[in-house]
Amino acid sequence: MDNLVASLPTDSQKVHLEDKSNIASNIKRPAPSSGGCRIEGYVRVKKVPGNLIISARSDAHSFDASQMNMSHVINHLSFGRKVSPRVMSDVKRLIPYVGSSHDRLNGLSFINTRDLGANVTMEHYLQIVKTEVITRKDYKLVEEYEYTAHSSVSQSLHIPVAKFHLELSPMQIHFSEEDFLADSIDPP
């Protein structure tokens, strides 16, 4: 598993770094045989259903789909604005009511051990629910997105991909933490 996320030496990337100014645009060549890539970043999208697809694609390379392995490790996957660790610990204090589905896929590995065959696509189906929490401490509104995830593998007729199906729930959870005893004694 370490070879999936380890840094690649620069020697294995010479095809990508060479001067391509004299190369005709219609020449196809095999893709480098180096081991994999690391992807990090963020994507801004509208709050509508959609797919995030990670695949190999290039006009200058031809790919042998039977040799592609779409194994991956998800270090972090979240939705919405980043919530500070202090606020998140305050939100997670309210478990089992909220916060248990915040980072479902974090730290999970999805490895194709090759006994599944060639051209294996790995798909993740995510149901995303907006959650609003008003904490008792500061009466501050914290917006976060929780999700449930189901993953599957399937044979692909084309180049295999890692696919994330995003489905936003039309409902949302609103959780307000209040002190019952204080409200009973001192009504607003």
Structure description:
- By secondary structure, the protein is mostly beta strands.
- Helices cover 12% and strands 32% of the residues.
- It has a domain at 49-54 and 70-188.
- It has helices at residues 2-5, 14-17, 85-92, 180-185, and strands spanning 29-30, 50-54, 61-62, 72-74, 108-110, 120-134, 141-155, 162-176.
- The protein has a four-stranded mixed sheet, with no helix packed on it. The chain has a two-stranded parallel ribbon with strand order 1-3. Strands 4-5 form a two-stranded antiparallel sheet.
- It is elongated and about 70 Å long.
- Residues 1-23 have low confidence and may be disordered.
- InterPro entries: Erv (IPR045888), Erv_C (IPR012936).
- This is Endoplasmic reticulum vesicle transporter C-terminal domain-containing protein.
- Residues 33-178 form the Endoplasmic reticulum vesicle transporter C-terminal domain.
Distance between the termini: 58 Å
Portion of residues in beta strands equals 25-35%
Proportion of residues in helical segments: 10-25%
Q: What's the helix-strand series?
A: HHEEEEHEEEEH
Helix and strand content put the structural class at: mainly beta
The number of helical runs is 4
Q: Major sheet, described briefly?
A: 4 strands, mixed
How big is the Rg?
A: 22 Å
Low-confidence stretches: 1-23
